[in-house]
Amino acid sequence: MGDDVQFRTSPGNGRITRSREGYSLQDVSRLLGLSRSMIRALIDAGYVSPLRGPRREYRFSFQDLVVLRTAQALVRAKLPTTRILRSLRRLRAQLPPEVPMSGLRVEAVGAAVVVRDGAMQWQPDDGQYLLRFQVEGSAGRVAFLDAPGEPAASAQALFQRALTLEPSHPDHACALYRQAIAIDPSLAAAHTNLGRLLHERKRPAEAEAAYRAGLAQVGADETLLFNLALLLEDVARPNEAAEMYRAALASNPELAQAHYNLALLCEAAGQAQEAIRHLAAYRRLSKR
């Protein structure tokens, strides 16, 4: 069937006939078993964007029906309407505009809405990725699995994709950083960027946990230590922040901004000699 030929309901007999005008709201409701209010709510959520006819009525394409069948499947899985609408609204918000909804597989797993994109699965409600795994042998080693016949995304590929999504879809970027870390826990930059994004989004407890998890995996990384110190300053824990700045400088004494920030904290704490020493180091490094 060509893209320019769809079906519509003939007046009076309830049958579906060919039309180049697309599907009406009544057609979609009848074909998919979705209420008109549900379909309108999905339109309002941006999940589907039908065209308007000459009398401003909705005209749905065949591709729109493919997308709406996802909602039909979730309704059949007996998920609450409010959860379906919330999850699909968040899914649309997490995806770049150029990513078509029809290219994703959305299904109910228990009481949750889960999205599958190639070998990856995530929950749009919280951005968390779901990993398929099995426990091998008596030692209890956990092996992560990929979907059959689909190549695994590398940690670096996920990291690069997250970088591009940061400005427009930060929640999705966070989920990708978490997935990259799950594949390669030693990827310090993923820990750093995840913590920074969470900090920027006013989620300090999660950001601190991300930084500390990174430090536990990769050791005394200067950027992780410096970012954690900034976070601790923001949540009014100056003594702990000072210790993190000292740890960062122990890793790299050339961090000029760490010297400056630590000098201010020392001055506020009445530690004049240390404050002078770090301020002098900051001035020396800033002249380079």
Commentary on this structure:
The chain has helices at residues 25-32, 36-44, 62-76, 81-94, 155-165, 170-183, 188-200, 204-218, 222-234, 238-251, 256-268, 272-286, and strands spanning 6-9, 16-19, 51-52, 58-59, 105-109, 112-117, 120-122, 129-130, 132-136, 141-145. With 288 residues, it is of the alpha+beta class. Residues 1-20 and 130-151 have low confidence and may be disordered. The relative contact order is 0.05. α7 packs antiparallel against α8. A four-stranded antiparallel β-sheet has the order 5-6-7-8. It has a two-stranded antiparallel ribbon with strand order 1-2. Strands 3-4 form a two-stranded antiparallel ribbon. β9 and β10 (141-145) form a beta hairpin. 53% of the residues lie in helices and 13% in strands.
Structural class: alpha+beta
> Percent range for helical residues?
40-55%
Percentage of residues in strands: 5-15%
Oligomerization category of the chains in this entry:
single chain
Distance between the termini: 68 Å
Number of helices: 12
Shape: elongated
Strand order of the largest sheet: 5-6-7-8
Major sheet details: 4 strands, antiparallel
The radius of gyration computed from the alpha-carbon positions, rounded to a whole number of angstroms, is 26 Å
Low-confidence stretches: 1-20, 130-151
Count of distinct strands:
10
What's the overall average pLDDT, rounded?
Answer: 78
Helix and strand sequence = EEHHEEHHEEEEEEHHHHHHHH
